[in-house]
Amino acid sequence: MPTIILPEGILGERCDKILSQILPLSRANVRKSFEQCPFECNGKKIHLHDKVYTGDIVTYEAIDLPLGKNSKCNLCLDIVFEDKDLIIINKPAGIVIHPGVNVRGKTLQEYVLEHCALSSLGQEGRSGVVHRLDKDTTGVIIFAKSDRAFTRLVRNFACHTIEKRYVCIIQGTPALNTGTIEIPIARQTHDKIRMIACPSGKSAKTTWIVRKRFEHFTLVDVRIHTGRTHQIRVHMSYIGHPIGGDLTYGYGGDFIFPRVMLHAESIALAHPLTGENLSFTAPLPRDFSETLENLYSTNGEKK
């Protein structure tokens, strides 16, 4: 369950008011969340009108609520590239890629389908989806519009000929400036959501390079050579440097991050039909840039 440690300056204010300032939800949607799922503060059930204070630990069950007119996900799609065979989107945080059993609210695939037709191929409810990003991960993602593009993109992802590069903020400061992690990844038997690094899993390879060091955190460029679920999150946690804000995989710092600080910065591929070499980059989203500015400030530097 997601956990928030309330930051400084909160001196007995209503829980729903504070959470609407911290979470990417309106105050009305925070109240709807309370109606659907219990919230706890310091291990005890809390009501939306209860008062909270600096240092309180609030846990809740993440749910997807219907998006309002002013939601960023109701804005026009941020289309990086589009032709008759594929469409590349700069994905915002807080939206799931495709429909699923436990998914509530509109998905990115459904928004894309309102814009254009997608390939009919793919698993049920996942037409046109050739790869995925986690709900909180931002950045470039590809959808296939034609069946031929779908078939070839799936093959190219499986053959690892599509290059995906990410940037993330990790907890701590690695001793080295670069490294390679080759540890298999499997799904945990007692938790279908979490993955784990273990010898019996599927092969996974991640390389990373330090971009900027801060006092307690590090900005890192990451390239994944395989495409396992939660690969970067699992691998960075495995080497003792979980991604900032990633409570699922071990982040435990005092610095409050708005989400898991992982961004799919670029993707490079040969066009599935023409063979033309393509490369696309998505700029850091606002919450990521503002977090970096705060870290620079703690270092006594300007970005």
Salient structural properties:
single chain, 303 residues, alpha+beta, Structural Genomics Hypothetical 15.5 Kd Protein In mrcA-pckA Intergenic Region, Chain A, Pseudouridine synthase, 3 domains, nine-stranded mixed beta sheet, 6 helices, globular
Summarize the structure.
With 303 residues, the chain is an alpha+beta fold. The protein contains 6 helices and 17 strands.
> What global shape is seen?
globular
Q: What is the rounded distance between the termini? A: 33 Å
- Which structural category fits the helices and strands? alpha+beta
Report the total helices: 6
What does this structure look like?
It is a single chain. This protein is α+β, with helices and mostly antiparallel strands. The chain folds into 3 domains: 57 residues, RNA-binding S4 domain (Structural Genomics Hypothetical 15.5 Kd Protein In mrcA-pckA Intergenic Region, Chain A), CATH 3.10.290.10; 94 residues, Pseudouridine synthase (2-Layer Sandwich), CATH 3.30.2350.10; 142 residues, Pseudouridine synthase (2-Layer Sandwich), CATH 3.30.2350.10. Helices cover 19% and strands 29% of the residues. It contains 6 helices and 17 strands. Strands 7, 8, 9, 10, 11, 14, 15, 16 and 17 form a 9-stranded mixed beta sheet that branches. Strands 1-6-3-4 form a 4-stranded antiparallel beta sheet, with no helix packed on it. A hairpin with a 3-residue loop joins strand 7 and strand 8. Helix 1 crosses helix 2. The protein is globular, with a radius of gyration of 20 Å. The two termini are 33 Å apart. About 4% of the residues have low confidence.
